[in-house]
């Protein structure tokens, strides 16, 4: 479940800040542009607002020409220096257990993201979903580049993904993606996914210490249980819908199951807040559609699939109902 005002491990923001400064961006300008308090940033164990973290990305974007900064930062991500989540990853008995732990404890690192694992006989994939309103392509670059580095660190040899799929449009620095991942890069996709050969999951950790692993795992479980997960049911439902639209699994029954309640209970809780599931679904789609269009992060023909529509006609009817315009006309009205 995602919090109403999502937070993340401050170490991630601190790492980003220090990386930007190391690449020559003025510390004073970063602080001024982002509104970040340096004293708060230096605190070791607090959780930090995701909205403020995104302001740091936006400041970096305007203060430098380091277009591939997300990739650059992810490439330096070291699981041994990423707190309890990184330690749980590196202490695992094999890569499959390490990946499971990364997914399980991701909430310690950030409230606003969701990772999903899929596997078949040939490959496995990690899909990255993000809470609406907190999207930034540089952050997705960082997550995938960082995950690749964690995998390589664990198995002690260079492995490349089979492919990487990204929801946003092909950026000007797309050549940096090819150089970093060394695999096919697909843009304007329905979801953000990185895929690897399944055989590497069986790689054993030669330094695995079961006693140490259990201590680390117990500590991670305690931290996870202490994170504040209280949230308004409307915000919770909206967040769950937003993360599932592109997968197609967003029926009221599926959302209720994910929230660990019956459909009847979910509808009752929403009714108590003066809302219906259908109204929340509709408003979430509207907000995401307008956000995607304004940001220009993905092609218009991709929008119906990102929002869970079966075809373009259904999406166009809904968009005209929301705004009175077609997507193209709407963009002309705000330019």
Short description:
With 335 residues, this protein is α+β, with helices and mostly antiparallel strands. It has 2 domains: 7-222, H-NOX domain; 233-334, Arc Repressor Mutant, subunit A (Orthogonal Bundle), CATH 1.10.10.60.
Indicate the mean pLDDT.
87
Distance between the termini: 36 Å
CATH architectural category of the largest domain: Alpha-Beta Complex
Portion of residues within helices: 40-55%
> What is the beta-strand fraction?
5-15%
Shape, per Cα inertia axes? globular
Tell me about the biggest sheet? 5 strands, mixed
Estimated radius of gyration: 20 Å
CATH topology value of the largest domain: H-NOX domain
Number of strands: 7
Q: Unreliable segments (pLDDT under 50, ≥5 consecutive)?
A: none
Question: Which strand order spans the largest sheet, edge to edge or round the barrel?
Answer: 3-4-7-5-6
Tally of distinct domains: 2
Determine the number of helices (DSSP H or I, runs of at least 4 residues).
Answer: 18
Order of helices and strands: EHHHEHHHHHEEHEHEEHHHHHHHH
**Helix/strand structural class:** alpha+beta
Keywords: DNA-binding, Transcription, Transcription regulation
Protein name: AraC-type DNA-binding protein
GO molecular function: DNA-binding transcription factor activity; transcription cis-regulatory region binding
Domain HTH araC/xylS-type: 235-333
């Amino acid at each position: 479940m995602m919090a109403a005002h999502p937070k993340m491990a401050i170490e991630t923001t601190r790492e980003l800040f220090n990386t930007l400064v190391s690449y020559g961006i003025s510390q004073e300008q970063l602080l001024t542009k982002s509104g970040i308090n340096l004293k708060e940033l230096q605190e070791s164990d607090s959780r930090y607002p995701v909205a403020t973290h995104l302001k740091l990305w936006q400041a970096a974007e305007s203060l430098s020409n380091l277009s591939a900064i997300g990739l650059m930062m992810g490439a330096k991500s070291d699981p041994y220096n990423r707190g309890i989540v990184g330690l749980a990853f590196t202490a695992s008995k094999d890569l499959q257990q390490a990946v499971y732990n990364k997914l399980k404890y991701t909430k310690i690192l950030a409230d606003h993201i969701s990772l999903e694992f899929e596997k078949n006989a040939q490959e496995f994939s990690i899909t990255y979903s993000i809470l609406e309103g907190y999207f930034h392509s540089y952050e997705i670059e960082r997550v995938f580049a960082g995950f690749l580095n964690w995998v390589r660190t664990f198995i002690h040899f260079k492995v490349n993904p089979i492919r990487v799929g990204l929801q946003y449009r092909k950026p000007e620095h797309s050549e940096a993606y090819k150089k970093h991942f060394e695999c096919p890069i697909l843009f304007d996709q329905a979801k953000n996914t990185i895929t690897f050969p399944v055989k590497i999951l069986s790689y054993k950790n030669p330094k695995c210490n079961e006693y140490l692993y259990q201590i680390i795992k117990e500590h991670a479980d305690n931290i996870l249980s202490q994170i504040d997960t209280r949230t308004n049911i409307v915000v919770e439902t909206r967040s769950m819908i937003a993360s599932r639209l592109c997968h197609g699994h967003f029926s009221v029954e599926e959302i209720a199951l994910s929230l660990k309640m019956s459909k009847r209970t979910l509808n009752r809780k929403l009714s108590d807040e003066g809302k219906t599931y259908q109204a929340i679904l509709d408003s979430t789609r509207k907000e995401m559609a307008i956000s995607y269009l304004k940001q220009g992060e993905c092609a218009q023909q991709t929008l119906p699939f990102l929002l869970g529509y079966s075809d373009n006609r259904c999406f166009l009817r809904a968009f005209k109902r929301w705004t009175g315009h077609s997507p193209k006309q709407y963009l002309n009205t705000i330019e």
